[in-house]
Design a protein that fits this description.
- The protein has five helices and eight strands, in the order E-E-H-E-E-H-H-E-E-H-E-H-E.
- It is α+β, with helices and mostly antiparallel strands.
- A six-stranded antiparallel β-sheet has the order 2-1-6-5-3-4. Strands 7-8 form a two-stranded parallel sheet.
């Protein structure tokens, strides 16, 4: 069901209004960051290099040994439908970030509370690009600060896999913006 003026997301086989998309708090993506994602964007409402992004996405899925229970072609179809269903909500000169996410789902021991939640959690969603909010930075540039927080070493977790383990980036951003909220953390 689509609601006027509300984005639609794909969640485990269904297209639902964004405000109704819910995942259990015991989902391993929430509990442990046990999830993979990939993001691309649209240009002129066309999804940029979707197959290439999904090929990278599937490499990350293999790295985490996650089976999304969808083929790349099925992900392409779902992603295109999500964007198509959401295009009426943006202007002709606006575009979307487009993201696919897969978590390992709920551990079998936790599934008694959510018996219908079996297998991975699969989400496809889009969000308008914040071009107006970033226009000043594009026009005037911005200050760059390197925070004290470092990335996880590449010999620990592959930086090629796009996982939900971004806590170090969040901490670095918090450190930098506490000094100046107009600064970009790198």
């Amino acid at each position: 069901m689509n609601r006027p003026n509300q984005r639609v997301v794909y969640l485990n086989g269904d297209f639902v209004p964004e405000s109704e998309a819910r995942i259990p708090f015991r989902d391993r993506g929430v509990k442990f960051g046990d999830a993979v994602f990939d993001t691309t964007r649209t240009f002129g409402h066309d999804i940029f290099r979707l197959r290439e992004h999904l090929e990278r996405f599937y490499r990350s899925l293999r790295y985490l040994r996650l089976d999304p229970k969808l083929t790349i072609d099925e992900f392409i179809e779902v992603t295109e439908q999500v964007v198509e269903r959401n295009l009426p909500l943006i202007g002709k000169d606006d575009d979307y970030w487009v993201t696919q996410r897969v978590t390992r789902g709920i551990d079998p021991a936790d599934r008694t509370a959510w018996p219908e939640w079996d297998g991975p959690t699969v989400i496809v969603e889009c969000l308008p690009l914040p071009l107006a909010a970033r226009a000043e930075s594009y026009r005037d540039g911005l200050e760059v600060v390197t925070p004290s927080v470092r990335r996880v070493a590449p010999d620990m977790v592959s930086p090629r896999a796009k996982t939900h383990n971004y806590l170090n980036l969040v901490l670095g951003d918090l450190e930098v913006t506490a000094q100046n909220d107009k600064v970009l953390a790198i």
